[in-house]
Amino acid sequence: MDDTLASSLSALGTTAFRWSALLFVLLNGGAALVIWLSRSRTLVNRLTPKLLLADVLLLGSGIGVPIVSQALAAVVRTVSVSSASHVDIKAK
To answer: What are the residue ranges of helices labelled H in 39-91?
Structure first.
């Protein structure tokens, strides 16, 4: 059970990173294409703050979620090993 939870947390981190990276590339590629096709300076000025906010959120989720999920998985593994060894000591 604990191993399943730890591997699920690890998978969650990997999935969050992949989706964030994909959305980051698609969002910035789409914005670059729109700006290149329109060649409008006012469009650049309007899109830049929104694009920057979206990039920061995607980078935060793409880096933060995997770090937190790996830390939680490590805690689950440590607690499960600790409780398993504690049970073994009592059994002897």
So the answer is: 41-91
Report CA 4 to chain centroid distance, whole Å. Answer: 20
Residues ≥6 apart with Cβ < 8 Å to 24:
55, 58, 59, 62
CB atoms under 10 Å from CB of 85, counted, come to: 10
Residues 27-61 pLDDT 10s: 999 999 999 999 999 999 999 999 999 999 999 99
Question: Per the confidence metrics, is the pTM higher than 0.85?
Answer: no
Is the distance from CB of 64 to CB of 17 less than 8 angstroms?
A: no
Q: Would you give the DSSP letter of residue 47?
A: H
- Please enumerate, as own/partner, the contacts of 53-58 that have beta carbons within 8 Å and a separation of 24 or more: 54/27, 55/24, 55/27, 55/28, 58/20, 58/23, 58/24, 58/27
**In contact, 16 and 61? CB cutoff 8 Å:** yes
| CA 67 centroid distance within chain | 8
